[in-house]
Amino acid sequence: MAEEQKKPKKRMTATKAAASIGPMVKEFIKGTVRAREEGTQKLAYTFIVCHHEEILRAMDVLPIWTENFAGICGVKRAAERYLQRAESLGFSRSLCTYALCGLGFDQWREELGEMPPDPPWGGQARPDFMISSGQILCDPRSKWYQAAQQFMPDVPVYNIDLPHPLFDPKRDHREVWGYYHKYIVDQLRGLVSFVEERTGKKMDYDRLRELTDLSDRTWNLVHETYELRRAIPCPMGTGDAMNTMVPLCFMMATQEAYDFYADLKQELEEKIAKGEGEVENEKYRLLWGGGLPAWYALTDFNYLNSKGASFPAETTYRMVVPVYEMDIPETDDPIEHIAWKWLGYWTHWYDKARKRPGSEPDVERLIEYIENYKIDGVVMHLAFSCRTWHVGLIWQLHQLAKIYKPIPVLMLGPGGNEEKAQRELPSLILESDIIDITSYSEVDTRNKIDAFIETLEAVRQNRAN
Amino acid sequence: MNDTGNVMPRVEQYYKDYGLRAKELAAQGRCVIGYVCSFVPLELITAAGCVPFRVRGDIHEPITKGDTLLETIVCPYYRSCFDLAVKGKYSFLSGTVVPHACDSMVRSYSAWAYSLNMPYVHFVNIPSVVEASSFEFFNEELKTFKKSLEEFTGKEVTEDDLVKAIRLHNTLRDKVKSLYGLRKQDPPLISGANLTKVVTVASSLPVDEAIALLEDVLEQMAQREESPLKKGARILIDGACIDNAELIQLIEGLGANVVADTICNGARDSWPLVRVDGDPIDALSHRYLDAVNCPKTYRENKSGTFEGDIQARFRDIGFMAKEFAVDGAILYVYKYCDPFGFEVPARKAYYESIDVPLLYLEDLYSGGTIGQLRTRIQAFLEMIE
Fold first, then answer.
1. Quick one: which of A241, B173, B290, B356 has the most CB atoms within 10 Å?
2. Which value does ipTM take for this structure?
3. Within 13 Å and on the Cβ side, how many CA atoms surround A382?
4. Reported confidence tier of residue A104, pLDDT bands at 50, 70, 90
5. Considering the entire predicted model, what is its pTM?
6. Cα A321 to the chain's mean position, in Å?
7. Residues of chain B with pLDDT under 50
8. Are A194 and A158 in contact (CB under 8 A)?
């Protein structure tokens, strides 16, 4: 496998915090392998952004983030052998490659009775149980562990259903969210019972309340920290944010995660005070407007940086809004609070979207970031194997261009005179995959980036003010 | 070969000019509501005085305008439906209902809602798991759907309306089941291609007209003393939605008979009935969430073994295979279909466990690629004969 022989180039980070993430993840993955060997904690395969971490941590369950391990395989350019194994089992390469990577790895580990040879960072430990999630989106999250049971039939699955009301411009979501909340609470209580049964421990609700409070404070801190990136020049870009998402997505409900963002906030404040930007001479401020990154090609961010482009904001992995801004009922019950927070997050842009004709929440979020972060262009990544985060991007850009034209330019009017007009933001869609490197061409990607930079420069020159 | 006598020209006409009757009805002022998936509770649409209309794709129509709004990584069947809608093929629809069935549907909901300018668009959230709290939630979601239809049509949907609609749709399903029954004998009394056309056309008509059409076909069949078809390998088709008869024609053109299926616009949708006693909303909720056996719905492995799990999840396949004495099966899955795609190895194992030879095909929704499947199907048929 030629691609696996190539050692990936390391992406240059702008912040010390982002640079500290690699060793942290390595230690985290090795820790799960150690825990398996020593039998110290129950291990659970599970998915990020399911708002169940507080429950797991309150019951001393160690989560194994299977998407994370697949991402590491991508970063290390070591995914291909697991993808090929999954294909040989009958899974199509067109399916979620995170899941294929995980299934290929699991099948191999179960067949050998030990870790496959040379696994990235010690490999993925065998779980005691698996917690999947049937959300409003992501079919693979509901199907992956069910498929994995073919190789691990003794490992039980609990599937939490976590729906939220879809946006309807003619209806206030609060009309229906009562029964959504009740259902989510029932689902989370079912998870508690499932984990109690598997661990032989009863839930300590005081501890759960403390952890939900810690998560809330971490959410608020992440928001405040990322808001610092409004500064010009921007002190930290999306390339770094693809690292700093780790505590947010994999370590929520831990003091370590809170402390990480406290340190990052301090680092960004210091950089802002010194006028240090992600790039030396910031010319363009870009929004990463959607799509998971090509994990094996994170150096593309450095390439964009080298052209004077910085990324002050991204929608990907920024799965928080400040809890104090959420319009959700207060409750002392931590399970009920988690369920409200879930609904509060997913419906956060609904009211705003309802006010702007033609808008919808994903588009409204883009507009909010464009305005708050003074954005000059939008970049998205279309990963062929993931419908969850990558279907709807074209439409969002289409709708954005239709309803939002923030750039003043001078155009030739009907009388031959220059007249002020408004035009939409330039946008770029990169295409490849999250971890399947066979879909990626560095030359094509960089040609596209070059053309996009030329467009940004032309717009910069032609701005009417 | 025309194996169904005089009623078939009508079926052929409606099949080729799909939506002809719905268009006429819309021109007369009837409200026609489109849907694409078996999870949409049609009884509520009928009870609201509207005509449920199953939107079809077209394997011979290149996808063009749709691709300007929707990514090519969407299920190709769904992309085709969307493309035709964008091109105006379904402009007679007053609205559309999208269920939470798969990522392709959920993530493209906004594109449907905003790009097609239909007066009515509604999303029905289908739970992913089947347990007591899921039914409670789904009951509420169905009430929300009912309310939105009432607001749109200005007509209250009474319990009596709903019970009547349930009975009508059950009657239609019984007729379709009788039609399937004609394929139990060897050779079958009706070909798989013609059955697909009849069932497809029925899903484009108001339920009473669909019942009448099925009655005509069944009456015609009753007069038949012997089958016009020849004996051949008896094949079951497994997969999602196959609303163009070409694949089945190809199989039958190679000497086999397609005698059973578990597809969405076939037995998956037509066989399960709605309970007629008790609360109609609760009856609908149980039918659509539990009885419609779609891979999208997670069902807990209660056996603790893989073998036990697949026996429970795929029992419908085993039932059809036995009931229709099949010699082999073709699992036909569209590229980019996550719900089915993740089940392929488990389904393969299941077919092996019931000793039914299986051919697995991954394909695009395209007339061009169907032809390329000929050699593989031919080799499979030779192997099982």
1. A241
2. 0.95
3. 19
4. very high
5. 0.95
6. 14
7. 1-2, 4
8. yes
